[in-house]
Amino acid sequence: MSVSSRPRGRGGTSLPSANLAIRQYFHDGPRNTPLAEWQRKTELPKVNEIMGTDHPGEEFNLATNKIHGPWPSAEVYLRTHYNLLREDAVANLRDAVAVVRERPGVTDSRSFVIYERVFFTHITMAHRGMAFRVCFSTRRAGKRILWRYSPRLISGNIVALSPATDMFSSICVIAVVAARPLEGVSKNPPEVDLFFAHAENMDFDPLKEWVMVESRSGYYEAHRHTMTALQKLSREGFPLSRHICGLETETGVPEYIASEPAMDFQAFAQGDSQQKLPCNVITELSKAPLEHLNIYQRSAMEHMLSKELAIVQGPPGTGKTFVSVTVLRLLLAQMNQGDPPIIVATHTNHALDQLLTLIAEFEPNYIRLGGRSRNFRVSSRTLFAIKENRPHISLQNGILSQARQRHAALVTDIIENTLKGFHRQIGDKSGSAFVHRGLLTQEQLKNLEEGSNQWVTSSMEGPIDPFIAWLGDQAVRFEDFCSDKQTSSKIDECHQDYEMLMELEAEQAPDADDWECLWGKTFDFRTSFPVLVRSFKHVPTVVIEKYLKFRDLWEIPREHRGAVYNELHRRLVKTIRDELREKLKLYMFNSKALQIGKLECDETILKTAKLIGMTTTGLSKYRGLVSALNPRLVMIEEAAEAIEAPVAVACFESLQHLILVGDHKQLQGRCAVHDLEGSPYYLDVSMFERLVQNDFPFVMLKEQRRMVPEIRRLLNPIYDDLQDHESVAKFEPVPGMGDVRSFFCTHNWPEVDDSLTSKVNEIEALMVFEFYCYLCSNGVPSRKITILTFYNGQRKKILKMLMDNENTRCHDPTVITVDSYQGEENDIIILSLVRSSDYLSAGIGFLAVDNRVCVALSRARRGLYIFGNARHLNAKSELWRQVTSIMKVGERGESRIGYGIPVTCQHGKVIAMEYIDIFKTPGSLTQTSFAPSHASTHNLAAANSAQAHSNLLGLPAPPNSRASTEEPEARLLIDLSDDDRLADPDLAGMTKNIAENDAPTTATRTSSNVSSSRTPGNTRADKKQLDNESKIRWNIFERESAEVSDSALNSLPRKAQKPLATKVHLMDASEEEMQSSKVAVLKPNVKRNPEIKEQTGSTPQPPGTVSTKHLLD
């Protein structure tokens, strides 16, 4: 009787077998057919790719993405996308290196940053590989870096290094950021860990100074995985290539559905019935209990189940995710034991968390791969969290255990037998490393130490380091030379908004269990070299050889000692590098085995799940692991937002069914190199869009449930057949806005550039701020308001205004860029367009991209209020011309575009808010002053008396008289006090300075016009100081027309006037009605002095004055 030798686990259970498919996926051994040049390229770019140009922007021959018609072959398709991705990954760094080579003294620019005084300090023997830690200086930034909110040097970024003496003239080394823990970059000098392609060849001399260059934009980490996956896909079978590359439109039923088309719809039945409801999804889906779907959603569901390559377009609010979840619920209910998991992917981590949250409502057995989830419910289902709660996994034929043993042995060997002589242990003598390697004799070291004892003074706690004493003023302590103290009060601004930065960090993180740090033993080079020599006199090698034979090194001339020390140091580093070279090769080879062994263990967990979620980047990053699961179905949400290659690599050899859900008329994919977007390369075009544009069969959802009809109609130029569900007509109106669901407040205030590449419109930001305040004062919860803008500079400007004001700060306002808001919605959207110029030749930037405009116009449910220069947009964009044409005529004939926004008080009276120029002929307007209440967090101003408000903020009491000829008018003052800043990425370190004692401003209103002026000697306010020197005045006036006629819209004056005051008219109201109405006053009149002077000719205040108890009630 034979005895089984099968390995057994605890309790006698058999060990599961390792899936050898993972090992085979990463096998790089000999192949039957030779590989093409692009298939052999390494992950990290070669030096010639970065150094191959002498001039930034030099042109290269590059095949273009074929977006019309079929591809010649799958190989051409894959090769072209690989080369385009590679160019997008390295071009910006290549151009940056070329600039530094031409101008070595250049400082940080908008496109790249330079770190100087870069020194190797540590080596970390992590499981992921051998990492080298460097310290560096950010002096060339000229600003302090807020590392927590900075995209600099985040994990996965690519950098180029060159010796400080070379500056990329001939030497360039490429590295990837391995980890950037905050405690590292917060040091002085900051530190970061790097991976090099060939660690064994790296010159890690700790006394050698380098410079390091990093591009501000780049998607290398994401592209790196996708490029590797494209290479793998080119050597595998490419399912669905006849559709994806050949554009064959006849698509069959997925094989696994065709074999079992009858599915149980019991999960969708009404009531608690447990009876099965079988239905053939190919021929009888119309009979299924899907009453919760409209006809378009049913059609989409049928298309998704019956086509091996299914495309569903979902315009805003049509429920595309709802349909996707319905299909997933049906398919998950049919799964049997042993079926491979369904793979779902989204473009962003945020969207993935939202999708998995919906799936979790009916299916708990799912796993999230990659990144770091910020959703509490989903985070418990990440692979890392699940592994934390499971015992150690042992596998039959697994390589993880052996790789770990080899790792421990290699680390011991490297440290004890190679680096030990490099390392000066506690208690060792300085210079012992030189003696250990035979570079100095024990007698030479003893004489050196005896000579240094003469340097001891009574003020010293102990003897000075002998080499410091010996070198004298040629020696510089390592920490002193590398110090990175920044004296500038300026802050290096983040060019991305915070949500996008968090998304980038989540995508580029190595793994959830290795997020911020590298785990492993660390060796500090600097302990062997307490000093470095910055400059020294050149000494011939033969002379140095002679000096090194001196028994007493003190006999060497002082001016030659620096050269001798550096030669000793060079020889020591060379000796250790030679010893390490082969050991590091073995170490790196074993690190790869560790990663494969880890994936083999992960596979045993993942194959038990029914559904696995990841981002489109994860499809590439974890392709070897997911491929081993043999998935049949991959569903990709937000498919039109991803460039083509990450979707193509989802075509695993086992794939039978690919579902793409998205909307190519919303946001597209983005490229690091803008020249690769659009013609002629079209790298930003998604597979979704390309197939749709080539008449590949797809289904479009046409009934929306998000927007009220008045907002939805703005999308008519984009979607000509979008219909409204009956429920949207029943949405409640916006408080304080009457029946005005949408409005375009046009102005001529010009934009400016911020310190980076973004745009800012300061007065428009002030308009948005005030309108937000008005809505909140009318009872709109701040959580139901989102302020959107196309530019991050404007986002920061508006957010600062809101955070600087103690009344709005507590509301936790949401200000975000359009690019970060796809897939989101809110009741009210305030949209700041920013772009406005006096010159018709000026462009409109992001506003010219129809996809971005589509997203911006489709986020609001109940109210959309736009601020911008309508005339400028009309001249530059056909889409905006159509949108403004629609807004000229409301649903009942009234205009929805004008110089001021019509708002409605709670008594139903319509008020027109209008911006006016305060720099005209002075008049005799008298003002009544009020101040907001700080006692309420919901009302920005509500008080019982003007005097009470004035006392609250220390403002002057309201004047007790006014000219008898004046019409009723009230003015509210808000003091933007200097409050503590919150810990916000865009507010930290910012200062605020409000001028208190400048000249006052007066404004005058006559019967039919409003004019204003400054007192003699005052000119127009300096635009640059408007942010810091502001007192806000709000005016109320009798109704005048605030609408812009068709002809007026096209003839707005080109010369921008500073709209620093606001005219608020009560429409069609008598004086008595004005007195009894609750009036909302909104817009700012920027003054430089809180003092308000009374006008001459005082008379008792007339009865038309607005009562403060109604103000902003």
Automatic annotation (TrEMBL):
<dbReference type="InterPro" id="IPR047187">
    <property type="entry name" value="SF1_C_Upf1"/>
</dbReference>
<keyword id="KW-0547">Nucleotide-binding</keyword>
<dbReference type="Pfam" id="PF25396">
    <property type="entry name" value="ZNFX1"/>
</dbReference>
<feature type="region of interest" description="Disordered">
    <location>
        <begin position="1068"/>
        <end position="1113"/>
    </location>
</feature>
<keyword id="KW-0378">Hydrolase</keyword>
<protein>
    <recommendedName>
        <fullName>Helicase ATP-binding domain-containing protein</fullName>
    </recommendedName>
</protein>
<dbReference type="Pfam" id="PF13087">
    <property type="entry name" value="AAA_12"/>
</dbReference>
<dbReference type="InterPro" id="IPR057373">
    <property type="entry name" value="ZNFX1"/>
</dbReference>
<feature type="domain" description="ZNFX1">
    <location>
        <begin position="109"/>
        <end position="216"/>
    </location>
</feature>
<dbReference type="InterPro" id="IPR041679">
    <property type="entry name" value="DNA2/NAM7-like_C"/>
</dbReference>
<dbReference type="InterPro" id="IPR027417">
    <property type="entry name" value="P-loop_NTPase"/>
</dbReference>
<dbReference type="Pfam" id="PF13086">
    <property type="entry name" value="AAA_11"/>
</dbReference>
<keyword id="KW-0067">ATP-binding</keyword>
<keyword id="KW-0347">Helicase</keyword>
<feature type="domain" description="DNA2/NAM7 helicase-like C-terminal">
    <location>
        <begin position="683"/>
        <end position="870"/>
    </location>
</feature>
<feature type="region of interest" description="Disordered">
    <location>
        <begin position="991"/>
        <end position="1027"/>
    </location>
</feature>
<dbReference type="InterPro" id="IPR041677">
    <property type="entry name" value="DNA2/NAM7_AAA_11"/>
</dbReference>
<dbReference type="GO" id="GO:0031380">
    <property type="term" value="C:nuclear RNA-directed RNA polymerase complex"/>
</dbReference>
<dbReference type="GO" id="GO:0004386">
    <property type="term" value="F:helicase activity"/>
</dbReference>
<feature type="compositionally biased region" description="Polar residues">
    <location>
        <begin position="1095"/>
        <end position="1113"/>
    </location>
</feature>
<feature type="domain" description="DNA2/NAM7 helicase helicase">
    <location>
        <begin position="292"/>
        <end position="668"/>
    </location>
</feature>
<feature type="compositionally biased region" description="Low complexity">
    <location>
        <begin position="1001"/>
        <end position="1015"/>
    </location>
</feature>
<dbReference type="InterPro" id="IPR045055">
    <property type="entry name" value="DNA2/NAM7-like"/>
</dbReference>
<dbReference type="GO" id="GO:0031048">
    <property type="term" value="P:regulatory ncRNA-mediated heterochromatin formation"/>
</dbReference>
